[in-house]
């Protein structure tokens, strides 16, 4: 019998990652960061967003979630590389999108706090684990395209 192929074990069977979209909202040189409510994931920081629903694309999901969570209408400027991450209880695929606000000012509904921070400051927050990879991609992207920061 052939030994199992470790690479196929990662993706085989009925295990599909949970798809979650999130928005990296840029404005006036700052990035919007959101702190989750106490009790849900230990007060860690995230980019606002949520699960992609059935029949929805990741980009549709982020537009819907940002309206539901922050009451803002956004335009997507750029999709970023997706991140696969395996929590002990959850296999996740994160779809980050660089966004620009086209209507309203963010209002907190489901977060403990939001902060507008510059690219250096965001490194100091305690982020959800999969987000560190997004932060590293974002740093490189903003070095290449600093104008994005102005939203
Ligand atoms: N929204 C968001 N979720 C993230 C990020 N990083 C990360 O690991 N996650 C995880 C945490 C959760 O397990 C999952 C998304 O959950 P969520 O609670 O935001 O999704 P949702 O709004 O659809 O949730 P709900 O309606 O079921 O409460 O993805 C991120 O930057 N933003």
From TrEMBL:
Belongs to the Nudix hydrolase family. This is 8-oxo-dGTP diphosphatase. The lineage of its organism: Bacteria, Pseudomonadati, Nitrospirota, Nitrospiria, Nitrospirales. The keyword DNA damage applies. Residues 15-142 form the Nudix hydrolase domain. One of its GO terms (molecular function) is 8-oxo-dGDP phosphatase activity. Its cofactor is Mg(2+). The keyword DNA damage applies. Keywords: DNA damage, DNA repair, DNA replication, Hydrolase, Magnesium, Metal-binding, Mutator protein. InterPro entries: MutT-like (IPR047127), MutY_C (IPR029119), Nudix_hydrolase (IPR020476), NUDIX_hydrolase-like_dom_sf (IPR015797), NUDIX_hydrolase_CS (IPR020084), NUDIX_hydrolase_dom (IPR000086). It comes from Leptospirillum ferrooxidans (strain C2-3). It is an enzyme of class 3 (hydrolase). GO terms for biological process: DNA repair; DNA replication. It catalyses: 8-oxo-dGTP + H2O = 8-oxo-dGMP + diphosphate + H(+); 8-oxo-GTP + H2O = 8-oxo-GMP + diphosphate + H(+). Its EC number is 3.6.1.55.
């Amino acid at each position: 019998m052939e030994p199992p192929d470790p690479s196929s074990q990662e993706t085989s069977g009925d295990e599909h990652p949970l798809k979650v979209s999130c928005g990296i909202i840029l404005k006036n040189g700052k990035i919007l960061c959101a702190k989750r409510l106490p009790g849900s994931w230990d007060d860690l920081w995230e980019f606002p967003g949520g699960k992609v629903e059935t029949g929805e694309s990741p980009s549709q999901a982020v537009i819907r979630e940002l309206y539901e969570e922050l009451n803002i209408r956004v335009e997507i400027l750029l999709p970023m590389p997706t991140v696969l991450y395996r929590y002990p209880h959850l296999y996740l695929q994160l779809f980050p999108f660089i966004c620009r606000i086209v209507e309203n000012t963010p209002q907190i509904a489901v977060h403990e706090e939001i902060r507008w921070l510059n690219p250096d400051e965001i490194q100091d927050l305690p982020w959800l684990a999969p987000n560190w990879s997004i932060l590293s991609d974002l740093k490189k992207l903003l070095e290449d395209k600093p104008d994005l920061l102005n939203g």
